Amino acid sequence: MEILTHPNPALKQTAAEIDPASDAELLDLVGRMAQLMYDAPGIGLAAPQIGVQKRVIVMDLDDRLVALCNPEIVKVSAETVTDEEGCLSLPGIGVQVERAVEVVCEAFDIKGNPVRIEAQDLFARLIQHEIDHLDGMLIIDRATPDERKAAIRRYNEHPSDE
Ligand SMILES: [Zn+2]
Q: Which of 59, 64, 117, 126 is in the most buried spot, having the most CB atoms within 10 Å?
């Protein structure tokens, strides 16, 4: 089990919603995702990044693991900020990505309880990044065409060690 990297086609798919209360593989999946995220090390990982097409993400910004099922952004601030983002599926490069500064996210925890998260700044950026993965969207897909070309060129010049 490893983190898939661009241009693996699994990263371009739209993941399916799950029923967290009845998905017998969910705990195992979240455990494996968290392990890979911490080993990388990274601050977020989405299930499609390990080839599992389920709407599940894990994040850890402040030594607290957050696992969300079927996360959905229900509100975004008008205010946006452009900043550099990296991705475990695009090792070695950073891309400038415009994101909403604040988002409200509705999801379910791993037991199927509804959760509502109001996130700002880096946490808001992280949630938007991980949910993008569930829709087959990478940071290079958020860049302008020129930036995208330059980023892919840098990426191809510095292939991952793995
Ligand atoms: Zn990513």
A: 59
